[in-house]
Structures are given as C-alpha cells and as structure tokens.
Amino acid sequence: xSDCAAHLARLRETAPLVQHITNHVAMNLAANVLLAxxxxxxxxxxxxxxxxxxxxxxxxxxxIGTLSAPWVxxxxxxxxxxxxxxxxxxxxxxxVGATAxxxxxxxxxxxxxxxxxxxxxxxxxxxxxxxSAGRGVDSTDSVEAAxxxxxxxANRTGGVVAVTxxxxxxxxxxxxxxxxxxxxxxPRVTALGCAQSGVVAAxxxxxEDNFEATxxxxxxxxxxxxxxxxxxxxxxxxxxxxxxxxxxxxGQQIDTYLRLEMSDEx
Amino acid sequence: xSDCAAHLARLRETAPLVQHITNHVAMNLAANVLLAxxxxxxxxxxxxxxxxxxxxxxxxxxxIGTLSAPWVxxxxxxxxxxxxxxxxxxxxxxxVGATAxxxxxxxxxxxxxxxxxxxxxxxxxxxxxxxSAGRGVDSTDSVEAAxxxxxxxANRTGGVVAVTxxxxxxxxxxxxxxxxxxxxxxPRVTALGCAQSGVVAAxxxxxEDNFEATxxxxxxxxxxxxxxxxxxxxxxxxxxxxxxxxxxxxGQQIDTYLRLEMSDEx
Amino acid sequence: xSDCAAHLARLRETAPLVQHITNHVAMNLAANVLLAxxxxxxxxxxxxxxxxxxxxxxxxxxxIGTLSAPWVxxxxxxxxxxxxxxxxxxxxxxxVGATAxxxxxxxxxxxxxxxxxxxxxxxxxxxxxxxSAGRGVDSTDSVEAAxxxxxxxANRTGGVVAVTxxxxxxxxxxxxxxxxxxxxxxPRVTALGCAQSGVVAAxxxxxEDNFEATxxxxxxxxxxxxxxxxxxxxxxxxxxxxxxxxxxxxGQQIDTYLRLEMSDEx
Lengths: 266, 266, 266
Description:
Three copies of one chain form a homotrimer.
Chain A: H1 3-14, E1 17-21, H2 27-37, E2 40-43, H3 50-54, E3 59-63, H4 69-85, E4 89-92, H5 100-110, E5 116-119, H6 121-127, H7 147-157, E6 160-163, E7 168-171, E8 176-179, H8 192-204, H9 210-229, H10 235-248, H11 251-257, E9 260-263
Parallel strand pairs in A: 1-2, 1-3, 3-4, 4-5, 5-6
Antiparallel strand pairs in A: 6-7, 7-8, 8-9
C-alpha cells in the first residue's frame, strides 16, 4: 500500500470533523465530497460561534469565493483560533486577483500562516503578487507558470502550497511533486476545486507530514476524477460518478492509477 | 391504501407552499426534494419580508444549520407569525449542542412551540438539555438513547418530535411509532435530514393529526431512500435516484415496503 | 446552421465571464449550467467589490430570489455599473408579487433598464403591475396571459422580455417569438429558471441583436431540456442529463428539434 493509500485509510478511520467557511456555490458539493470520502463536514461561519467551533474542529477550510464583510471577520477569527490551538487550516484564494477586496482579505489571511494553500495557477500567481491577469474564477495561466510563485509562497508562509490543474504541483518550499492524474471534465463542474481544499483539510487533520498529506489529498482526488470520467457523458453525470468513486476509492485503485512525478529537492 | 399513502396523495393534491429559513448547504436539495414530492418550496429569510411571507405560506420550516444574527431575528419573526396565524412550523435544531449561539437560538425558538421538531439523536438529546457530546452535524448517539428526550420535548412543547436515524422514532408525548425503513447511504448525502424537515412541514400543511402527518412524512422519506438505494452505486447516484423515487412514489410502494412498529400508549 | 446555432457557437468561442448576484438556491446550478454550456460564471455580491467586478465582467445577471438588504444595495450598484459601462444585464424577478420588499426592489432595478428580463408568467404580470395573485416562486398564470404584460414591459424598459413556461414567449416590443420546445420535468428542478437567466446573460455578452440572442438562449435551453428528458426517470436524473446535454448540444440538434413560432410584427 502506497503512502497515499495509507493517508486515505487513516482519514476514513478517524472521520475528521472539518469546519468550512466556504463560498455559497461550493457548500453543498464540499459537504458531499467530504461525506463520500468518509470525513464529517460542518459549515459554521457566524462570528458569534466561529471561534468556539474552530477550537473543537479537527481541521478548518477557508475559501474567499463569495465574500462579505461579516464573513471576512469570521474567517480571521477562525484562522486565528486554529493557529492558536494548533489545528491545521487550508486557505483557498478564489479569484484573488479580481478585486481589491479579495487581495486585502487574502493578505490578512496569509499573515495567519495557513497550513496549506490550494488554488489554480492564476490564483497562486496573484497571491504571490506576481501580477496575474486572472479576472474570474477560472485559471488563465498554466500550472507550470505558477511553480515559482508556489515555492515563494511556501517559503513565505512556512506551509504547503498546491497548484491544481491538468498536472497538479505541490511544494513545501523544500520538496515538490507533480500529480499527472485527473480529467478534463473536472473544471467543468463548479466548485470542484473549492471542495478539494476541504479534502486537503481533511487529510491534514491527523498527520505528521503536511506535504505528504496534501499530496495524498491531490492524488486521491485526481484519481477519483479519472475513474469517474469513465462512466461520464458530460459534467452532470461526471459529478455523480465522482461522488460514487470517492466513496468506493481504495488503495489498489490508487496504486494502479497513480502517475506521480516526485523530486525531493528544489 | 394506508394512512401514509393517503397523506402523500393529499400533499400532491394540495401542493402546499412551504417557506424555508434553512441553511446554505440544504437550500437547493430541500427545494428539489419538495418539488419532486409535489409541494412548492420558497426560501424567504429577509427580515423585511419574512412576516409578510409567513402569513401567506401553508407551512414553515426553520433550520439553524448555518446561523447568522440577522437570520436568527428572521427565524423568530417567522415563527411568531406562523404561530399567530395558526400555520404549522417545523424546527430542525442542526448541531444544537455545538455552540452557545446555537443553544440560545434554539431555546428561544422552542418557546414559540414548533408544531414538530426533527433532528438526529444527538440533536434531540442536546435540545432536551440532557448533555449530549455531539460536536458536529452528524449524530454520535443512537436513536434509542434519544427516545426519552424526544418524549420530554414533546410534552414540553405540545408538539410532535421525530428522531431520525437507522430506525426513526416519532412521538407526540402520548403516542409513539418507529419506522424501520431507510438505507445506510442516506447520511452520506449532505442535508438529506434538513430536507426531510421541509417534507415534514409539507405533510403538516393540511392535516388534522400532526402525529400521523409527521409519521407519513418519515415513512415516505425512508421508503423512498430504500427504493433509491437499489439503483445506487454510492452517494452521488443515490441522491439522483432518491429524487426520481420521491417523484414516482406511490401508495402501493408504501404498502409493500412499510416496516412500522407502532405503539399508541407511552 | 440556424441563427440560434450561430449564437451558441459564438458563446463557446468567447467563453464570456458572467457575474451573478443570484439567489442561494440557484448559485450552484447556475454556475454548472454556464460551465456546461461553455461560459465562465462568477458569483460576486459584496458591496465592497461589486462595482469593480461589474466593470470587468462580460455580462451580469441579477436575481431577487433570496433577498437581503445588503444584497439589494449590491444589486443596484452592479446594475448601475453595468449600465454605465455598457455591459448587458439580465433581471430575474423571482416571486416579485409575493412581498412589498420584492416589489420595491424590482421597481428600483427596473429603472436601471435591464437589457433583458426573464421570468415566469406570474412574475412578468406582477412586474408589469397588472395584479397577479402569485404567492410563491411557481407560476399560477399561463404564458399566454402574460404576453401583453411582456410587451408593455419591453416598451417601458427598451429591453427584451422573456416569459418562460410550456411555450416560451419573447419580445422586444417590436418583434415577438414563441419557443414550443421544452419538457414538463423542467419546472420540477429547482432554480432551472434562475439558471436560464444566467444563460440569457451569457448569450447577450457579445451580440448586436439582443432579441435574437435572447431567443437563441431560450431555444438552446428548451431543446436541451427536451433531449435530456429522453434519458430521465424523474427530476433527479433529468437534472444530470440536462447538464450533459448542454455540454454536448450542437447546431444539428438545434436544427432538428427547433419548434419556433416567429412573428416579426406586433
């Protein structure tokens, strides 16, 4: 059994509680993805309860896809609590390059040192302040073009950074890996990237190696996408098959499908 | 035709308008479940319009899954209006044990005497103030352990209380029943419980017996789940099949599948 | 290739960015519908960023399904910006007849001259202030009964008005057309009408004829529904098939299925 399969087995055994402050488009899918995988999602974002909940959750996922001023406050409170009690938290900088409000919110969240960051290439480039032209939520840059930005971000935050796309790239500033699995239908299902950030949080809930755990999350997700596409006729049936596949995903499938390019040194 | 089938036939004939103030994860599914079944859902939660709408709806469902201060105010306004004009309303105390904000909100809503309460075992125990340890939204207690809490709650509110799980339990403090239908995939689809609370509201819209109507809602839902699972390969295809099955559910299926344990006296 | 097919081909070529301020029930489906069709959706509604984003989007869709005071402010800011920079914007007056809050919000948005309005018959009648009795979000009036209201609205706003139902009606005050495609399962899937308003916005993003573009949006949608129904067993499988069908829809299917009643003069 590969390391990735072992991480997945541990996730199912511990069924971590994963608090989300995520966008309105992603909430339902993110919860279904985590339930299918074997984790326990909870969407909690009111400032009146966000700290109390963040102190008891096993992992936290913050996503700026659909911002509002009250939620920005809650995101900061939750991330501070997570950092204070030592709970891993994942930051998903959706469309961070599009508006000043997003850039400022992201900058303040970055100061709270996310355990991992997951975004598409345009988002990672914009977050590392290298001036991407991304307007919307879909990437207009290649993953390769974002590699240096990802390494710089990892060094700045001390966390893991994952750039997802046709080939995923993940780094902790010292190690890096590329995951060549996945399928072209994945970006045709809204919020599949956002939901993946919650999956990274779930894998980080109980691990001693954040890089390995994030990598296992990317691998599981991309392989599930690849298998699901075999019974898909378009994005509708793909999304259904994807949840079924996550639910049934096992170590043998991971070992069979895995196409990893690993390089320990940068 | 059983009583349950008669309640379902009446729902389809009257197509009740069911106002929801429900959580962000559940909204879409709850609306689709009601449309599939034959009712007419409406999500209306702004304090500027919530009383006006609550005065014209046929039933109301309030769910505290994703709280915020403005919505807590709207929930109270809507429940007060429903009570004032005699419209049935259902309370779904999602994750009520997790934070003080939820406990306080729930306590105030309980004072407005919900016509029915539907929750999982951990939620019903926490609501009855018996100190459950539930952290997240998924139950950590058995339905059986929540029976006394349910009866106590029913006596306190004068309403019906339903505890859903592998075997559902429903009581109005005088009568009780258990529904042994359902399927293990149901808790793997997010918000399926939340959507069920809306279904209870729809069944309560036009009935002379709230206990019987709630029981019919539980039975229809659990049997639809059981039938849907026959064509499911996981939670994704289950959710799709569940909506199809609700749409086609008929009295003969209910009579064929029904596994009810009834006991009129407590 | 018909005009409708040409409009669809152009949409896929340009992949327009379509900003939505839409309701909580519709957000996920609206995004998936646009992605399946080939456009790029973005849900952005905070007043802190709504003008900045509206200045860079290719089209805007505003939907009052789940209102709140902060969003009403954002809707006005976004529509004003769209009008100022000349970006097409679509107004979807969900349940406008139900409450004073909706009527007042809609009246103010109408003053900002939407490029197109799309609603069901009850909504269009209520919006034209002809006193519909619609309580909820589902239509209680026939499309035919809304034709005069649609023409009056089109003349008042100078824009296109579409009434969708069993047979869709569209007019710009001078021209009119009826689309006889579609399927009875479509109103059984929540927010399918709301998502259609986003599709109209996507078709309007790059066109010289707003009437023709709106008509092409209605035609594509209704034909996709008709084809999808062939593999549906109920509203669950219909929704899945509908996304697959939008993804694969081609000009030949449009030409084969099209049932248009066109009349250039009113």
